[in-house]
Specification:
Elements: E1 6-7, E2 14-15, H1 37-50
Antiparallel strand pairs: 1-2
The structure holds zinc ion (ZN).
Zinc ion (ZN) binds at residues 8, 10-11, 13, 20, 22-23, 25.
Amino acid sequence: MKDLIKRCPNCKEYTLKQLCKKCGVSTISPHPAKFSLQDRYVRYKFLKEKT
Ligand SMILES: [Zn+2]
């Protein structure tokens, strides 16, 4: 699972589609590390260990 999540540059919605269903514009891959899947996974792991 990598590079599946895309984001609409117009309405900022996350989607798996190539086109935003709201705006009909092409979505882009949100590549900045802020929202990387790896980061989310690490955080999830961290939370799991904490509880
Ligand atoms: Zn949109």
